[in-house]
Amino acid sequence: LAEVSRPAHVCIDLSEGFTVEHGFHLVFAEGSKLKAGLWIVNDDYRLSGDVEVRWWIERRGGGRLARRLHRALGWMSSQRIPARLPNADERALSLRSLEIPLNKPGEFTFRVQLWRRSQRLDENFVDFRVGEARAHHKAPRRVPGLLVNKVYQVGSLRRTEDGFMFTLKNPAMPVFL
Questions:
Q1: Exposed (0-12), middle (13-18) or buried (19+): which is 88, by Cβ within 10 Å?
Q2: In angstroms, what is the C-alpha Rg of the chain?
Q3: pTM of the shown model
Q4: For 30, 58, 127, 136, which has the most beta carbons within 10 A of its beta carbon?
Q5: Can you give the pLDDT of all 177 residues of the chain as single tens digits?
């Protein structure tokens, strides 16, 4: 809650070139570009002056040590954009539109940070995957064995010319299907 309530924000506006997989996973094709606009918002009347936006792409995956190493290497090689923090009564400031080539498949994070001198004001990120979209196979829903044994007459399943047939238990009243 404290992070999303920060008065100064750096925002990422993804425009095109991705598909959404399984409702919320972003997937870019290999060889495509991540197109993103960067914005700065300030809601604090006490904050003003020069700031710096740092952005980089880091590979995800591996253990805790690998993730820390990827983040540290990304931060050290980050691109830096100098800017002026907009006043609280001004509109959001559009910094730059980025087009980043995505030539290697894998799981990545696009990370953006807003700095004022040595103080990090905000951080934002987008997780995504580069590669082919995965086919979504919905797992079949299994009926619990306890329930099956209450309604299915064990051993009644028979193959017929038209398909199959089976008997259901119904202790309350006879039913015809």
A1: middle
A2: 27
A3: 0.69
A4: 58
A5: 777 678 899 999 998 888 888 767 899 999 999 999 999 999 999 999 999 999 999 888 777 776 677 667 766 778 999 999 999 999 999 998 999 999 999 999 999 999 999 999 999 999 999 998 776 656 666 666 666 666 777 777 788 887 777 777 766 665 555
Look up residue 58 and give its two tokens: 């880091």
Classify 74 in phi/psi space as left (phi over 0), alpha (psi -120 to 50) or beta: alpha
Find out whether 50 and 116 touch, Cβ atoms under 8 Å. yes
